[in-house]
Amino acid sequence: MYMAATGAMSSAEAVRLDRWLWAARFFKTRRLASDAIRSGHVEVDGVRAKPARAVRQGQMITVRKGPQVFEVVVAGLAEQRGPASVAQGLYAETEASQVRRAEQREAMRLAAAAQPRPAHRPERRDRRELAALKRRTRD
User: Fold this and answer.
1) pTM for the whole thing?
2) Interatomic CA distance for residues 60 and 82, integer angstroms
């Protein structure tokens, strides 16, 4: 962390975006958070950001993790990862985001229920037939 003598802000005012996402438990490691930010999966106030972007309370952050999209407002700042109960207090998810994710979860549950499920594990013959089918469709 930079010292106040170098002109950087104290941790009470702002935190790096990658550190905040890690502390708020959106990503398991800072490296994953940084990679997601660089890939364009994270926006701050509707604008693509960089990992070192300063995050302040009240800013809107959009995080895309796979098919899920989280829209959260920064409610607290932290540079260290703590317990999950503390991490949940660092942000407040918008009502629209919660509704959209609930609808998406329901749609995924219904789609999974519609998929045919085999009665048992495939045996050697079944696996060979499946491999042959995959080879034919690939060629």
Assistant:
1) 0.74
2) 22
90 CB neighbour count, 10 Å cutoff: 22
Superfamily of domain 4-138, CATH level 4: RNA-binding S4 domain (3.10.290.10)
Q: Which residues, other chains included, contact 96 with Cβ-Cβ below 8 Å and sequence gap of 6+?
A: 71
20-72 pLDDT per residue, tens: 999 999 999 999 999 999 999 999 999 999 999 999 999 999 999 988 999 99
DSSP 83: -
Closest CA to 10 of 76, 79, 90: 79
Domain assignments of the chain as residue spans, ordered by start: 4-138
Q: How many CB atoms lie within 10 A of CB 132?
A: 10
Among residues 99, 51, 55, 87, which one has the least CA distance to residue 74?
Answer: 55
